[in-house]
Amino acid sequence: MQFPQTPQHAQLPLFEAFMAQPLAPLLKEVVEAPWSSEPEVFSEASLRGAAGSCLSLLAPILRELSQDQEARWLTLIAPPSSLTQAWLRDAGLNRERILLLQPSSAQSALQLTCEALRLGRSHTVVSWLNPLNANARQQLISAARQGDAQSLNIRLG
Questions:
Q1: What 3-state class would DSSP assign to 16?
Q2: Which domains does the chain have, with CATH numbers?
Q3: Across the strands, what pairs with 27?
Q4: Cα torsion for 117, 118, 120, 122, to the nearest 10°?
Q5: Which of 101, 102, 127, 131 is most exposed, with the fewest beta carbons within 10 Å of its own?
Q6: Is the bond into 39 cis (omega within 30 degrees of 0)?
């Protein structure tokens, strides 16, 4: 069976508009854009669904962090009530490397998280702050940089 031959240049008009645009200014912007050499110190994960399902998704992340060979702690600030010592054990986390901290009436979860980050005794401080506005996020970033730590915020929805 033979198909009718169409000239190869029939499809070129689709690309001509794109190719007509000068690429030099775009490439110049990409090449000259400064690359940040600072490591990211703040991360956020948003999990939605049943509490058990969210914890199942979170377990491998926390397990990996709890098995970090660094001499500092993995600190969990105000975790949900379903995150119990039994859950930590069943999820295979190294409970000898984990601190669980609850805020007091004199100190909010954000303040406690910032303090734990600033002190630098934890390689990662995991918080459950929701909502987290831009000012609070900046406080966490600043505290994490000061303590040479990582901040991970978990939003459960």
A1: helix
A2: 42-156 (3.40.50.300)
A3: none
A4: -20
A5: 131
A6: no
Integer Cα distance of 83 and 97 in angstroms: 16
Alpha helices by DSSP H, 21-157: 24-32, 51-66, 85-90, 109-119, 134-147
The amino acid at 86: A
> What CA–CA distance (Å, rounded) separates 114 from 130?
15
Under DSSP, the state recorded for 44 is E
Q: Name the pairing type of β-strands 122-127 and 42-47.
A: unpaired
CA distance 81 to 108: 17
Length of the chain: 157
| Among the listed residues 120, 121, 109, 123, the one whose alpha carbon sits nearest the alpha carbon of residue 143 | 120
In this predicted structure, what is the pLDDT of residue 151? Answer: 98
Instruction: Write the pLDDT tens digit of every residue in 103-150.
Output: 999 999 999 999 999 999 999 999 999 989 999 999 999 999 999 999
H or E element, residue 101: strand 98-101
Quick check: 141 and 41 in contact, CB under 8 A? yes
